[in-house]
Specification:
Two copies of one chain form a homodimer. Chain A has a single domain, classed as Class I glutamine amidotransferase (GATase) domain (Rossmann fold). In chain A, the strands form two sheets. Chain A has a seven-stranded mixed β-sheet. The first copy, chain A, has 235 residues and is α/β, with parallel strands linked by helices. Helices cover 25% and strands 20% of the residues of chain A. Chain A has seven helices and eleven strands. Chains A and B meet through helix 7 of A and helix 7 of B. Chains A, B: Keywords: Hydrolase, Protease, Serine protease. Chains A, B: GO terms for molecular function: serine-type peptidase activity.
Chain lengths: 235, 235
């Protein structure tokens, strides 16, 4: 029985850390006091401890206690025993490399599949998909694989960004990049705009937040789905 | 004796393919008729043949003949015999994966070090650096290594983009990404803006084009260098 929230971002413009999604998290983590935080993605290269303190301050607003995975002598045991897990954003290459290096990739997946509640933002949501091939991050380290947890049967592109009108920059748009991805991979990609999240309860996948999401299926033109859309059949 | 041009981009806004740099290429390839084109990066997923035809049309303006590497039965022999090589942009992960898969990585490096003239744009310039860890591209395929040709003793970030004023998007800026890179890697990074290129003659490395470049050295604040700056001591 899966219970997941996979969010595009931790923070929306002009708002505090997790602020936009705290009411949702309050309901999602109802009855849970302690949340295990995976700080491996280290946004901007901050330390595990500094990152954990940011997560602690965010969750304090809904009276949850947060402990960083780096604080445990045995991270596998910590993940196995956790009732609720939060993986924050940062660099997906680093996050995935560290999950493999610390041998917590399979325990994390097993724990979530047994029912531990899982909340991810950005890189932490990316790893909920089949692979990390649709991350936006810079490949600052070389992970042993791009395979991720496969908690949903598609890939996620967090921080999905529409083409900027009047841009004179010649780098690829996000849509062009995902089109390139589909030359070599067949799974769908959900482009999650900032402020959107996927709510997964057992096998039901629902788009939440105020915005539409953009869906990319291999071989067909991309299309928009409205908030509250049921994405359970996307695979 | 190395002769290289590593350009940020093939195309600047409002101008045709290679148009801005054709006068430079005309001088650089003086005395050479045939250019071997490496089409592996496949921008937007186009075929090797379609990509080669774009390169052919571009170089026709300075009366050069272009042949795609995919047209040869023996790509190693083609690279070993080439007097001039051009690698176009697209996806760096795909380019690097294909260089390794087709066993042309070492022959390409050897050919350039023996004196074959090399021109790269975007992904084709990225591979001139020590590693591809500072590419902007989406990791659509998994290459066997992030190590690249090391023709210059630093990394390159092509299409370097300054932070957008007033952006409400919460994804990392380019500068933040390179800062994260320097948490795990020590080599300098040259942020090459569109319209800039590096000219390498033997061990002399010079910034060309009209714009400044942004230099990131590990442990010190980034700084700007002017066009025609000598970057030979950057390592």
């Amino acid at each position: 029985m899966k219970h997941l929230i996979l969010a595009s971002t931790s923070t929306i413009h002009g708002s505090g850390y997790l602020e936009y999604i705290l009411p949702e998290l309050d309901v999602f983590f109802n009855g849970i006091e302690d949340i295990l935080f995976i700080p491996y993605a280290r946004p901007g290269g901050i330390t595990h401890q500094a990152y954990t303190e940011i997560a602690q301050a965010g969750f304090k607003n809904i009276n949850k206690t947060v402990t960083g995975l780096h604080q445990y002598d045995d991270p596998i045991e910590a993940i196995t025993n956790a009732k609720a897990i939060f993986t924050g954003g940062g660099n997906t290459f680093l996050l995935v490399q560290q999950l493999y290096k610390n041998h917590v990739f399979e325990p994390l997946k097993a724990s979530i599949l047994r029912g531990a509640k899982y909340f991810g933002t950005s890189a932490g949501s990316n790893i909920g998909g089949l692979t990390m091939n649709t991350t936006n991050d810079m490949p600052i380290v070389y992970p042993p694989s791009f395979k991720t947890l496969g908690l949903v049967p598609f890939n996620i592109n967090p921080h999905y960004l529409d083409p900027l009108p009047n841009s004179k920059h010649m780098g690829e748009t996000r849509e062009t990049r995902i089109k390139e991805f589909h030359q070599f991979n067949t799974q769908p990609v959900v482009g999650l705009r900032e402020g959107s999240w996927l709510e997964i309860t057992s096998e039901t996948i629902t788009l939440r937040g105020h915005l539409q999401a953009r869906i990319f299926e291999c071989g067909t033109p991309p299309y928009e789905v409205d908030t509250n859309a049921d994405l359970s059949d996307l695979k």
